[in-house]
Design a protein that fits this description.
The structure holds two protein chains of two kinds.
Chain A lengths: L3 E6 L8 H9 L7 H5 L8 E9 L2 E9 L8 H5 L5 E3 L5 E3 L9 H5 L6 E2 L26 E2 L5 H13 L12 H5 L5 E5 L6 H6 L4 E2 L11 E4 L7
Parallel strand pairs in A: 1-10
Antiparallel strand pairs in A: 1-8, 2-3, 4-5, 6-7, 9-10
Chain B lengths: L4 H12 L2 H14 L10 E7 L8 E7 L2 E7 L12 H4 L2 H4 L9 E4 L6 E4 L2 H17 L6 E6 L4 H13 L4 E4 L3 H11 L6 E2 L6 E5 L10 H12 L5 E5 L5 H5 L2 E3 L6 H14 L5 H7 E2 L4 E2 L5 E2 L2 H8 L2 H8 L3 H13 L3 E4 L10 H14 L9 E2 L16 H8 L24 E4 L14 H6 L3 E4 L13 E2 L10 E4 L7 E6 L12 H12 L1 H6 L5 H14 L4 E2 L3 H12 L10 H11 L1 E4 L7 H4 L7 E2 L5 H4 L13 E7 L12 H4 L13 E4 L1 H6 L6 E6 L4 E8 L7 E6 L9 H6 L22 E12 L1
Parallel strand pairs in B: 6-7, 6-17, 9-10, 9-15, 10-11, 12-24, 17-18, 18-19, 25-29, 26-28
Antiparallel strand pairs in B: 1-2, 2-3, 4-5, 4-19, 8-16, 13-14, 20-21, 21-23, 22-23, 25-30, 26-29, 27-28, 27-30
Helix pairs in contact in B: 5-18, 6-18, 7-15, 10-13, 10-14, 10-15
Classes of the chains: A alpha+beta, B alpha/beta.
Chain lengths: 230, 773
């Protein structure tokens, strides 16, 4: 069984926002507006966090792309009273929107604050409804949502593989953010496959995970900045 | 009626179903948005060319039935190799947009007070054609002006052809890169932009250049950056007043006073000269005026070496630029000893009155270390072998019109400012379908300018407040709905051609601009029609593409392994035809997304050096050039200097119809939608301004309201405001009016002076009363 994970090379990330936009288009996330932004109710499954350090002129800025961590030990799953969020066999922390009752326990329990609550019904101008992806359901008001590693792409890849009578190859499945990343800072693959890039990189001395001390065991690994070696 | 056993069981089951579950299931259906007319859908992927910026990246468009739902990079495209930037990703919003114009619009009842009326294409084309014919016959062909940004599509050449055959010299393209182009023409004899070979270079010394984000080739550069970064193969030094995205990715950020880049480059040059780190062999063979030289009168003129050594005192440079002496010497040594090293200049240098001088200084650095026409250096892009256009037949009217001066004609000497008054009035203005760059001051003056022009025709596909002063709109389509042929942007070393066929049929009643031009030419008739013998744009493209088939080199886009094979063969003089006939070739071309030739031959002297000397010509730095103009307003009234900059990926326009793109622009500043002003935290403390306070920034010419953002990435006496940022979607007049940083610039913009100088502005800043947001 595969265990899907991501490695993010912070040396390569230029903060260009391609992943953020790609995710929104792929997953039918409505665009933010000045109003939603000022009330902090915008939704963005993928965010590039900016950390500024130092004072003029010795300043440094780090960009940290933050998708869902897809923890091995996910705190959000533990508190969900209705089983709307769960970890599937391949390690993806998935969300069943129709089961969600909007209690927001999971958004509060997620140490990475990456679960988003739909405070209002998502709206698009009528014209823009044309580009909505039919593979991803639209969420309603009162439902929690987050990054799914573009799980619908995995389902489709599996079906294609089955139709072609072969097993799923690692490169068949790639989330939208990883596919578009211009510098190749985002790398995706099977953490169980010893030949895969993510397997090797996640064991690199540069690898770390966010809030590792909490024991959530995220499947998103970061490679530290500033130590330039492969 | 007898009840069967089965019916009975159904009834019981239904009645005993717990009500919450029944409720839940009905909610499920509404949430899942199931349509009653659901049917299986067909997914297709269509290659095309991205038109969200002038970069012309290759796209694969995901279609579900007849809808575009997503774009990805075309993996075969040699430039972007399957990758695409955020602006490109948001392109679907350009296609499906509530502000799109649905049919030709005519303003009735006066320009200001008037209302739009939808008219038919037949009527619209007749109006334009009769007006153009009338002007042409009355000897005013030259007074028709086209205004738009630079582009690299066949469509742009079609517009130029239209204007030439019509008889107007006024093909005005707002060109951000003007200063650098002038510098190239002075040093290398051609104003074409040269390419920087990022793939092979090891050291980048960038002078305010936003190469990672704001160049047409940025996606390609980012890809190379990613490949080289993890292997410690590339060192980047960014010299720039503000800590930009590029500076944050550099190994070293060297803050500098705005507009002093050229002086620093001269300082670095003087260190290289003193320590004799320059490439003597190159300078002997390929450079002129480096040593002292004699002019036609036999007078001895000091060369670059003498002037740089005599005029430049490193201590003065350090004081003027605010770069420590030690840093200048360190950079100079590093730059000269790491080969190949690139000194980058870009359009940002143009925003200062001394833009050409600054660009010349940066180019001189490249010549000093002999990094021109070498792998990892500056190289001349090679055009693709498209079939040339049919020769134009000009009639007497056209020839007479073309002999007239342009309305934006510039003074011959690059040290002189452009002419103030146009030589004649404009009778008809044609506005490009691409948005005009929002960072140019003449847009502030738009109302005043437009009042003087009797007829303004726009091809813009979106209705926004800037169309208010327009009389007639012939809406162009987006790039998803038209045939496309684009050559590589001029900064790319790749010889390639990207093509695309319409992904979807034109929405509403919009029509591709190229087809509009062809129909107009036919309507005007006579020689105009004869010069446009094609039925539509598609025919033009197929005609030109035939040149690639006949060239017997290169191939349709290939995977990187196949490209490698092709390159090896071609370098050894082999070329194998892959297509039996032109039709096969064209079909394959549109299937793969384009054509390219991976081989680049360096060291073709006549190609690189296009001046009669066939050399790189150094300029002599004179004292008054080195002494640069200072901002005029008094320091006590306006204590701060303002730095206006372009946000990432917005060098050409704001991308207003794409809210997905707009919302990401403030990501370094807490996802701010409003216009912000960046203040050094120390300054803010002194002025008692806190993060997110509402403040006014005021120059002698105007003021804007902005949100204060504390940012340690600039000197305490500097403020920075981004340009090209929309504050709402759809952008509206109110939102633009109160927070348009262009209002801070002197109100001197006109079409004649479309060149923006904006980095020597002094301002003051104060809190809005009760202004905490």
């Amino acid at each position: 069984m595969s265990r899907w994970g991501m490695v993010i090379d912070l040396d390569k990330c230029t903060g260009c926002q391609a992943c953020v936009v790609a995710c929104k288009v792929e997953n039918n996330v409505p665009f933010s507006t000045p109003e939603s932004e000022s009330s902090r109710r915008s939704i963005s499954w993928m965010v590039v966090l900016t950390i500024t350090e130092g004072t003029y002129p010795n300043i440094r800025q780090r960009f940290i792309p933050r998708p869902c961590m897809h923890c091995e030990n996910p705190p959000c799953v533990k508190v969900c009273p209705v089983g709307a969020t769960y970890k599937n066999k391949e390690g993806i922390v998935a969300q069943i929107y129709t089961r969600c009752i909007g209690c927001r326990y999971c958004t509060n329990n997620c140490p990475y604050t990456l679960k988003y609550f739909n405070y209002s019904r998502p709206r698009w101008p009528t014209e823009m409804e044309n580009y909505l992806n039919p593979d991803v359901s639209r969420r309603g008001v009162g439902v929690v949502e987050k990054c799914t590693f573009c799980h619908h792409r995995l389902q489709k890849a599996k079906e294609i593989a089955r139709a072609e009578g072969r097993t799923l190859r690692e490169e068949d499945y790639i989330p939208a953010c990883v596919q578009t990343c211009p510098t190749g800072a985002l790398i995706f693959g099977d953490l169980e496959n010893p030949k895969s890039q993510v397997f090797l990189l996640s064991r690199s001395p540069r690898a770390f995970r966010l809030l590792e001390e909490l024991g959530t065991e995220p499947k998103v690994f970061y490679l530290t900045e500033g130590e330039r070696h492969a | 009626m007898a009840i069967k056993r089965r019916d009975f069981l159904k009834l019981v089951a239904g009645a005993t179903l717990p009500w919450p579950l029944a409720d839940c299931s009905s909610r499920n259906i509404s949430r899942m948005n199931l349509q009653s007319s659901w049917e299986p859908r067909l997914e297709t992927w269509v290659p095309t060319v991205c038109g969200a910026c002038p970069g012309n990246c290759g796209l694969l468009v995901r279609k579900i039935d007849n809808r575009v739902v997503k774009v990805e990079g075309n993996p075969l495209h040699p430039s972007n190799r399957g990758k695409i930037c955020g602006r490109g990703q948001a392109g679907v919003q350009l296609l499906y947009n509530p502000t799109r114009i649905k049919a030709p619009l005519l303003k009735v009842g006066g320009r200001r007070a008037g209302k739009w009326r939808e008219i038919s294409w037949e009527e619209a084309l007749s109006i334009v054609a009769s007006k153009l014919t009338e002007l042409r016959n009355s000897g005013k062909a030259h007074s028709v002006v086209y205004l738009g940004p630079e582009g690299h599509q066949v469509a742009d050449e079609l517009i130029s052809r239209f204007l030439r055959v019509y008889g107007s010299p006024n093909d005005i393209r707002i060109d951000l890169w003007k200063a650098l182009k002038q510098a190239y023409s002075l040093t290398l004899g051609s104003s074409d932009l040269m390419a920087f070979d990022f793939e092979n270079c090891k050291y980048i010394l960038s002078f305010s250049s936003q190469f990672l984000t704001n160049w047409p080739t940025s996606v390609e550069i980012q890809r190379i950056y990613g490949e080289k970064r993890s292997k410690a193969e590339l060192k980047i030094v960014q010299v720039e007043p503000r800590f930009s995205l590029c500076a944050s990715r550099a190994d070293r950020w060297v803050p500098i006073r705005p507009g002093k880049e050229g002086l620093l480059a001269l300082g670095i040059a003087s260190v290289i000269l003193k320590e004799q780190l320059y490439d003597k062999n190159y300078l002997d063979r390929f450079a002129a005026r480096f040593e002292d030289w004699f002019n036609e009168q036999g007078e001895k003129i000091p060369g670059f070496k003498t002037t740089a050594l005599n005029l430049i005192r490193l201590e003065d440079v350090s004081e003027e630029t605010a770069v420590p002496l030690k840093t200048i010497i360190e950079i100079a040594r590093e730059f000269a000893s790491t080969r190949p090293a690139l000194a980058l200049a870009d359009y940002n240098l143009s925003y200062h009155p001394q833009g050409v001088f600054n660009s010349l200084c940066v180019l001189a650095l490249n010549a000093l270390i002999g990094n021109i026409d070498l792998p990892g250096g500056i190289a001349r892009p090679r055009p693709a072998p498209l079939r040339p256009w049919l020769t134009e037949n000009l009639d007497a009217i056209a020839e007479k019109g073309l002999r007239m001066p342009r309305v934006d004609e510039e003074a011959k000497d690059w040290l002189m400012p452009p002419l103030d008054n146009p030589p004649y009035e404009i009778d008809c203005l044609l506005i490009s379908p691409q948005p005009l760059p929002g960072n140019f001051p003449f847009l502030e003056n738009w109302e005043e300018i437009s009042q003087k022009i009797p007829l303004i025709i726009s091809f813009q596909p979106y209705l926004d407040e800037r169309n208010e002063h327009v009389d007639l709109i012939l809406p162009d389509t987006t790039y998803f709905e038209k045939w496309q042929l684009a050559t590589s942007p001029s900064l790319s070393m790749k010889t390639m051609v990207s093509v695309g066929m319409p992904v979807v049929k034109p929405l509403y009643q919009s029509r591709p601009l190229e087809d509009i031009l062809i129909s107009l030419a036919k309507k005007i008739g006579g020689l105009m029609a004869a010069n446009f013998p094609w039925e539509n744009h598609q025919e033009v493209i197929i005609d030109r593409l035939a040149g690639l088939f006949e060239a017997e080199r290169g191939a349709v886009f290939l995977s990187s392994q196949e490209e490698f094979q092709l390159k090896i063969l071609e370098e050894r003089g082999w070329w194998l035809s892959q297509h039996k006939n032109l039709d096969d070739f064209i079909a394959d071309l549109f299937k793969s997304g384009g054509w390219h030739d991976p081989v680049y031959h360096f060291q073709i002297r006549s190609n690189t050096y296009q001046n009669p000397q066939r050399r790189f010509i150094f300029f002599s730095a004179s004292e008054n050039l080195i002494k640069q103009t200072e901002p005029q307003a008094s320091e006590s009234d306006y204590p701060f200097q303002l730095f206006l900059y372009d946000l990432p990926f917005t060098s050409n326009n704001s991308g207003a119809p794409m809210p997905f793109f707009q919302e990401t622009l403030g990501f370094r500043f807490n996802s701010e939608w409003r216009i912000w002003v960046e203040i050094n935290p120390e300054t803010a403390k002194e002025l008692k301004i806190k993060e997110n306070d509402l403040v006014w920034v005021e120059s002698p010419y105007g003021k804007v309201m902005a949100v204060a953002k504390l940012f340690p990435g600039l000197e305490p006496w500097l403020l920075a405001i981004p340009l090209n940022k929309e504050t709402a979607f759809p952008a509206n007049k109110e939102s633009r009016k109160i927070s348009d940083p262009l209002a801070l610039l002197p109100n001197s913009g006109s079409i004649q002076k479309n060149f923006s100088v904006r980095q020597n502005l002094r301002v003051r800043i104060y809190k809005e009363k009760g202004g905490t947001s």
